[in-house]
Specification:
Elements lengths: L3 H4 L13 H23 L2 H6 L5 H8 L2 H20 L9 H18 L1 H12 L10 H23 L8 H17 L1 H8 L6 H19 L3
Helix pairs in contact: 2-5, 2-7, 4-5, 5-8, 6-8, 6-9, 6-11, 8-9, 9-11
Protein backbone atom coordinates (compact mmCIF):
# COMPACT_ATOMS: atom_id res chain seq x y z
CA UNK A 1 0.00 0.00 0.00
CA UNK A 2 1.45 3.43 -0.91
CA UNK A 3 2.57 5.53 1.99
CA UNK A 4 1.21 9.01 2.71
CA UNK A 5 4.49 10.47 1.51
CA UNK A 6 4.23 8.59 -1.77
CA UNK A 7 0.67 9.72 -2.46
CA UNK A 8 1.14 13.36 -1.44
CA UNK A 9 1.14 15.79 -4.37
CA UNK A 10 4.57 16.84 -5.47
CA UNK A 11 5.35 20.50 -4.97
CA UNK A 12 6.33 22.25 -8.16
CA UNK A 13 9.91 23.37 -7.92
CA UNK A 14 10.65 26.95 -8.94
CA UNK A 15 11.96 27.17 -12.45
CA UNK A 16 15.72 27.56 -12.31
CA UNK A 17 17.64 30.33 -14.02
CA UNK A 18 19.19 27.76 -16.35
CA UNK A 19 15.75 26.76 -17.62
CA UNK A 20 14.42 30.29 -18.13
CA UNK A 21 17.21 32.88 -18.10
CA UNK A 22 15.10 35.47 -19.92
CA UNK A 23 12.33 35.05 -17.37
CA UNK A 24 14.79 35.56 -14.54
CA UNK A 25 16.22 38.70 -16.15
CA UNK A 26 12.71 40.02 -16.73
CA UNK A 27 11.80 39.48 -13.07
CA UNK A 28 14.98 41.21 -11.91
CA UNK A 29 14.43 44.19 -14.22
CA UNK A 30 10.82 44.62 -13.08
CA UNK A 31 11.84 44.57 -9.42
CA UNK A 32 14.78 46.89 -10.07
CA UNK A 33 12.67 49.41 -11.95
CA UNK A 34 10.23 49.63 -9.04
CA UNK A 35 13.10 50.06 -6.58
CA UNK A 36 14.88 52.75 -8.61
CA UNK A 37 11.64 54.65 -9.21
CA UNK A 38 10.81 54.58 -5.50
CA UNK A 39 14.26 55.31 -4.05
CA UNK A 40 16.42 56.61 -6.86
CA UNK A 41 19.78 55.19 -7.90
CA UNK A 42 21.51 56.24 -4.71
CA UNK A 43 18.86 54.90 -2.36
CA UNK A 44 18.17 51.59 -4.10
CA UNK A 45 19.81 48.46 -2.65
CA UNK A 46 20.61 45.23 -4.49
CA UNK A 47 19.60 43.23 -1.41
CA UNK A 48 16.12 44.73 -1.49
CA UNK A 49 15.79 44.18 -5.23
CA UNK A 50 16.79 40.54 -4.81
CA UNK A 51 14.29 40.12 -1.97
CA UNK A 52 11.49 41.08 -4.36
CA UNK A 53 12.38 38.31 -6.81
CA UNK A 54 12.36 34.53 -6.65
CA UNK A 55 16.02 34.33 -7.62
CA UNK A 56 19.26 34.70 -5.72
CA UNK A 57 21.18 37.94 -5.31
CA UNK A 58 24.14 36.39 -7.08
CA UNK A 59 22.05 36.17 -10.28
CA UNK A 60 21.73 39.95 -10.34
CA UNK A 61 25.51 40.22 -10.34
CA UNK A 62 25.76 37.39 -12.88
CA UNK A 63 23.51 39.16 -15.41
CA UNK A 64 24.12 42.84 -14.63
CA UNK A 65 27.54 42.98 -12.88
CA UNK A 66 26.52 45.55 -10.24
CA UNK A 67 23.83 48.03 -9.21
CA UNK A 68 24.88 50.57 -11.81
CA UNK A 69 24.80 47.93 -14.54
CA UNK A 70 21.28 47.02 -13.46
CA UNK A 71 20.26 50.68 -13.50
CA UNK A 72 21.68 51.08 -17.01
CA UNK A 73 19.63 48.10 -18.21
CA UNK A 74 16.45 49.54 -16.69
CA UNK A 75 17.14 52.95 -18.23
CA UNK A 76 17.83 51.57 -21.69
CA UNK A 77 14.69 49.46 -21.61
CA UNK A 78 12.60 52.49 -20.57
CA UNK A 79 13.69 54.50 -23.60
CA UNK A 80 13.45 51.51 -25.94
CA UNK A 81 9.86 50.79 -24.93
CA UNK A 82 8.42 54.22 -25.75
CA UNK A 83 10.24 54.35 -29.08
CA UNK A 84 9.06 50.82 -29.97
CA UNK A 85 5.44 51.67 -29.23
CA UNK A 86 5.70 54.92 -31.22
CA UNK A 87 6.65 52.93 -34.30
CA UNK A 88 3.37 50.98 -34.15
CA UNK A 89 1.29 54.12 -34.79
CA UNK A 90 1.43 53.85 -38.63
CA UNK A 91 1.46 57.62 -39.05
CA UNK A 92 2.20 57.32 -42.77
CA UNK A 93 -1.39 56.19 -43.33
CA UNK A 94 -2.78 59.45 -41.86
CA UNK A 95 -2.96 63.00 -43.23
CA UNK A 96 -0.21 65.18 -41.69
CA UNK A 97 -2.44 67.04 -39.22
CA UNK A 98 -4.07 63.83 -38.03
CA UNK A 99 -0.70 62.08 -37.86
CA UNK A 100 0.86 64.78 -35.68
CA UNK A 101 -2.25 64.91 -33.47
CA UNK A 102 -2.03 61.13 -33.06
CA UNK A 103 1.63 61.29 -32.10
CA UNK A 104 1.04 64.13 -29.63
CA UNK A 105 -1.87 62.25 -28.08
CA UNK A 106 0.18 59.08 -27.81
CA UNK A 107 3.05 60.98 -26.18
CA UNK A 108 0.71 62.51 -23.61
CA UNK A 109 -0.99 59.18 -22.86
CA UNK A 110 2.28 57.29 -22.58
CA UNK A 111 3.66 59.67 -19.98
CA UNK A 112 0.37 59.72 -18.05
CA UNK A 113 0.14 55.92 -18.01
CA UNK A 114 3.83 55.21 -17.43
CA UNK A 115 4.81 57.40 -14.52
CA UNK A 116 7.81 55.11 -13.90
CA UNK A 117 9.31 56.40 -17.14
CA UNK A 118 8.94 60.00 -16.00
CA UNK A 119 10.50 59.21 -12.63
CA UNK A 120 13.47 57.44 -14.25
CA UNK A 121 14.13 60.40 -16.55
CA UNK A 122 13.93 62.75 -13.55
CA UNK A 123 16.41 60.59 -11.65
CA UNK A 124 18.82 60.54 -14.58
CA UNK A 125 18.61 64.33 -14.84
CA UNK A 126 19.59 64.53 -11.18
CA UNK A 127 22.72 62.61 -12.18
CA UNK A 128 23.32 64.99 -15.13
CA UNK A 129 22.68 62.19 -17.66
CA UNK A 130 25.93 60.54 -16.59
CA UNK A 131 24.57 57.06 -17.24
CA UNK A 132 22.94 57.90 -20.57
CA UNK A 133 26.41 58.86 -21.78
CA UNK A 134 27.50 55.27 -21.16
CA UNK A 135 24.58 53.84 -23.14
CA UNK A 136 25.85 54.10 -26.70
CA UNK A 137 22.57 52.76 -28.08
CA UNK A 138 20.43 55.55 -26.60
CA UNK A 139 21.10 58.10 -29.34
CA UNK A 140 20.32 55.51 -32.00
CA UNK A 141 17.16 54.38 -30.19
CA UNK A 142 15.85 57.93 -29.90
CA UNK A 143 16.63 58.93 -33.47
CA UNK A 144 13.43 57.17 -34.54
CA UNK A 145 11.40 59.82 -32.68
CA UNK A 146 12.82 62.59 -34.87
CA UNK A 147 12.55 60.46 -38.00
CA UNK A 148 8.83 59.95 -37.41
CA UNK A 149 8.25 63.64 -36.82
CA UNK A 150 10.36 64.46 -39.88
CA UNK A 151 8.28 62.24 -42.14
CA UNK A 152 5.03 63.82 -40.94
CA UNK A 153 6.39 67.36 -40.98
CA UNK A 154 7.80 67.17 -44.50
CA UNK A 155 4.49 65.85 -45.81
CA UNK A 156 2.68 68.66 -44.04
CA UNK A 157 4.98 71.32 -45.49
CA UNK A 158 4.61 69.84 -48.98
CA UNK A 159 0.81 69.95 -48.64
CA UNK A 160 0.89 73.50 -47.31
CA UNK A 161 -0.64 72.69 -43.91
CA UNK A 162 2.60 73.14 -41.91
CA UNK A 163 4.79 76.22 -42.01
CA UNK A 164 8.35 75.57 -43.19
CA UNK A 165 11.53 76.20 -41.24
CA UNK A 166 10.66 74.53 -37.93
CA UNK A 167 13.38 72.49 -36.25
CA UNK A 168 12.26 68.88 -35.79
CA UNK A 169 13.74 68.73 -32.31
CA UNK A 170 11.63 71.73 -31.30
CA UNK A 171 8.48 69.83 -32.26
CA UNK A 172 9.61 66.81 -30.28
CA UNK A 173 10.57 68.91 -27.26
CA UNK A 174 7.23 70.71 -27.27
CA UNK A 175 5.29 67.44 -27.22
CA UNK A 176 7.57 65.83 -24.66
CA UNK A 177 7.75 68.82 -22.33
CA UNK A 178 3.99 69.33 -22.16
CA UNK A 179 3.40 65.61 -21.59
CA UNK A 180 6.23 65.22 -19.08
CA UNK A 181 5.21 68.22 -16.97
CA UNK A 182 1.72 66.83 -16.53
CA UNK A 183 3.25 63.97 -14.56
CA UNK A 184 6.47 65.37 -13.09
CA UNK A 185 4.75 68.36 -11.48
CA UNK A 186 1.48 66.71 -10.54
CA UNK A 187 2.11 66.76 -6.79
CA UNK A 188 3.30 70.37 -6.63
CA UNK A 189 0.50 71.69 -8.85
CA UNK A 190 -2.07 70.00 -6.64
CA UNK A 191 -0.47 71.44 -3.52
CA UNK A 192 -0.14 74.98 -4.88
CA UNK A 193 -3.34 75.27 -6.92
CA UNK A 194 -5.51 72.47 -5.55
CA UNK A 195 -5.70 71.03 -9.07
CA UNK A 196 -5.21 67.30 -9.65
CA UNK A 197 -3.75 66.92 -13.13
CA UNK A 198 -4.17 63.16 -12.85
CA UNK A 199 -7.95 63.33 -12.39
CA UNK A 200 -9.81 61.81 -15.39
CA UNK A 201 -11.61 65.01 -16.45
CA UNK A 202 -8.47 67.13 -15.99
CA UNK A 203 -6.40 64.66 -17.97
CA UNK A 204 -8.85 64.64 -20.89
CA UNK A 205 -8.93 68.44 -20.98
CA UNK A 206 -5.15 68.74 -20.71
CA UNK A 207 -4.60 66.13 -23.42
CA UNK A 208 -6.74 68.15 -25.83
CA UNK A 209 -4.82 71.31 -24.91
CA UNK A 210 -1.47 69.66 -25.58
CA UNK A 211 -2.56 68.40 -29.00
CA UNK A 212 -3.93 71.84 -29.87
CA UNK A 213 -0.70 73.54 -28.75
CA UNK A 214 1.44 71.24 -30.90
CA UNK A 215 -0.77 71.73 -33.97
CA UNK A 216 -0.88 75.51 -33.53
CA UNK A 217 2.91 75.51 -33.32
CA UNK A 218 3.32 73.92 -36.76
CA UNK A 219 0.23 74.97 -38.71
CA UNK A 220 0.64 77.24 -41.70
CA UNK A 221 -2.55 79.24 -41.02
Amino acid sequence: MPTAAATAPRLKRPQSWTQDPEGVKREILDAARAEFVEKGLSGARVDEIAAKTSTAKRMIYYYFKDKEGLYLAVLEEAYSRIRTLERTLDLAALPPLDALATLAGFTFDYHAENTDFVRLVMIENIHHARHLKVLTKISEINLSALEMIGDVYRRGVAEGVFRPGINLLDIHLTMSALSFYNVSNRATIEQVFGHDMGAPAARIRRRASVIEAVLRFVRAD
